[in-house]
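tool_call: predict_structure(chain=1)
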Amino acid sequence: MLIEQSAYSNRWRYVSPAAKGLFAACGFIAIFAAKSPLTATLVAGLLLLVTLIGAGITPGRYLRIATPALFFLAMGSLSLAFAVDVGDGQPLLHLAPNGLSKLAEVGTRSLGALAALLFLVLTTPLVDLIALLRRLKTPELLLEIMVLCYRMLFVFSAAVHETWNAQSARLGYASARLTVRSLGGLAANLTLQVWQRAHALHLAAQARNNDGPLRFLEASFANSRRDCRIAGLAGAGLIAFAVGMA
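tool_result:
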């Protein structure tokens, strides 16, 4: 839930989602327009600074949110640099031809794309993103799936918190043996609770006969045009920087 906490507490919470989406899109373009891994790294660094300094996201929270994605990115990038040779019957790991150059190119571009995506999600609540995507004519089915998955994340988090507190109050984690037993009970209880709550959500959807898309109250942003102009200029500068760097 750190992403949602950041989205509601950052400095740019009331900046137009269209402006933030425009800047993030320009960040993606700049990353893929970069001519070298160094340029892509610099663009990723600029996006990181905008998120930390401009939006006010703390470095510790940013790192906690980005760590799983960075781990996945590292594993995927390393797989490009190495190859497995099984010619003699024994698998042998060795450096692939041009492996380091591929690692640098794909890794830095992916890092920049991640920075652009984190900028958007850490500064914009999902409700505002849904409203923006609806204005961009995104299929309603996809938006409803996003909303339901978003809702189930909070259901899952609440179930974990409630069960963990109940087990801790009964000293369920006082020893290693009790910890293993409590974790098994937690997993079993969560499976049942999430199934029941998902079923209740499905019945609620059927009760309204799936009549029309899910709607939310959309926030109004007084300076939307000004925000979009500033974001467009900043994004164009970012693209020009990426293209102009040799």
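agent: The longest strand covers residues 82-85. Proceeding to next step.
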